[in-house]
Amino acid sequence: MKLHNYFRSSASFRVRIALELKGLSYEYIAVHLGKGDHKKAPFADLSADALVPLLEVDGARLSQSMAIIEYLDEKHPMPALLPADALGRAKVRALAQSIACEIHPLNNLRVLKYLVRELKVEEEAKNTWYRHWVREGLDAFERQLTQLPASTYCYGDTPTLADCCLVPQIFNGQRFAVNLDGLPRTMAAFDACMALTAFQKAQPSACPDYEA
Ligand SMILES: N[C@@H](CCC(=O)N[C@@H](CS)C(=O)NCC(=O)O)C(=O)O
């Protein structure tokens, strides 16, 4: 397996966590988003949407972190990243999508770049945009968690797809100094995840292309 990814990319980080949780080894292929390498050959020749992550596996190229993680979960069922019951799966997918579909697209690199370069938004206003949407999304995430039974991780007592999405989003929020106070369930799940070796091994600072 080859994972084309970037140390700072949240969507890549989700897949790295899933690979580590499942104990799957992979070749790390760095794509430097800051230098625009995702828009140039060789990566642009492989990727239809010029986004990381991209996983080369079983003779195919898979894009979209959630699709990749679900593929890995089907091919390597243990440890499971989705609950055994349909209702549980729907809950976990809802949590994961709250981050991947509601928060992340608004704080993505190309969106922030467009605000600054095309719409001439000042740096501080861009950061206000970022913090607003991330915090609002995390408040909604917290409300979802409070409607669920007490648990160590986002859902239940083992990490799931929801945790694979939450942890990178919190890293990203910390980088942009988002206020993370008043999110007790969310931050407890984050802390529980970060106590696990799999999450530590997947984090940006553990990546071969890491830059401080
Ligand atoms: N929904 C996609 C998001 C992929 C994505 O947006 N990746 C970002 C990095 S986290 C990227 O490649 N950005 C390049 C850009 O914005 O130009 C997924 O979950 O894989």
Features:
9 helices; 212 residues; 4-stranded mixed beta sheet; alpha+beta; binds glutathione; globular
Summarize this structure briefly.
The chain is of the alpha+beta class and 212 residues long.
**Count the helices. How many?**
9
Could you tell me the number of beta strands? 4
What's the SSE pattern?
Answer: EHEHEEHHHHHHH
Task: Give the class from helix and strand content and strand pairing.
Answer: alpha+beta
Radius of gyration: 17 Å
Q: State the major sheet.
A: 4 strands, mixed
Strands of the widest sheet, in order across it, are 2-1-3-4
Describe the structure.
This protein is α+β, with helices and mostly antiparallel strands. The protein contains 9 helices and 4 strands. Strands 2-1-3-4 form a 4-stranded mixed β-sheet, covered by helices on one side. Helix 1 (10-21) packs across helix 7 (161-175). The longest helix has 24 residues, at 123-146. The radius of gyration is 17 Å and the shape is globular. The mean pLDDT is 97. The chain binds glutathione (GSH).
